[in-house]
Amino acid sequence: xxxxxxxxxxxxxxxxxxxxxxxxxLVQLRIKDQPGQIVADQVAQARDLCRxxxxxxxxxxxxxxxxxxxxxxxxxxxxxxxDADIAAIRRAGIKLGISTHDxxxxxxxxxxxxxYVALGPVYPTKLKQMKWHRQGLEKVSEWKGLxxxxxxxxxxxMSVERAAGAFEAGADIVSVVTDITWNDxxxxxxxxxxxxxx
Length: 198
Prior knowledge:
It is a single chain. With 198 residues, the protein is an alpha/beta fold. The protein has one domain (6-193): Aldolase class I (TIM Barrel). It has helices at 13-19, 36-53, 63-68, 78-83, 86-91, 103-111, 136-147, 160-169, 178-181, 186-197, and strands at 6-10, 26-29, 56-60, 73-76, 95-100, 116-119, 152-154, 173-176. Strand 3 (56-60), helix 3 and strand 4 (73-76) form a beta-alpha-beta unit.
């Protein structure tokens, strides 16, 4: 199955109610600092919404909730890998995306045979303070050369205007957060993204 080239990330299922009807076909639910029951409820709601709209749902971090609710994809950061039961994820038939920032992390990710690799931040990001500075488009090209046919996700500081450069550098998918969620008109911004990536 080929993943869509446009990969927005949202922190609440409410966003999915707004954005999936516009034609979003790949989405990540990245919930932070919520009790387990709220996470489980949100993941189950997101699963149902995505099935209804023919959208691929990727659950960030909460791999057990993804298994429990029968989701198809999980995304794990490097810290998440320390605690995740990769064997259980794979036994459940769940596909796996992994964040990377440097060669050591890429080697660790590739050893787990992920279904995609994410590289970031390609540009400076407003979302969180990171110890990694801008990776740049050169790193996107380098990563693509290293991972071959495996899908490469470019994330961090991405905007509609920067998407073409990321694709030219070798990214297969561009992931975006604040360019949509901090926009004055998020729905219109998603429409712009869909035009730029289809």
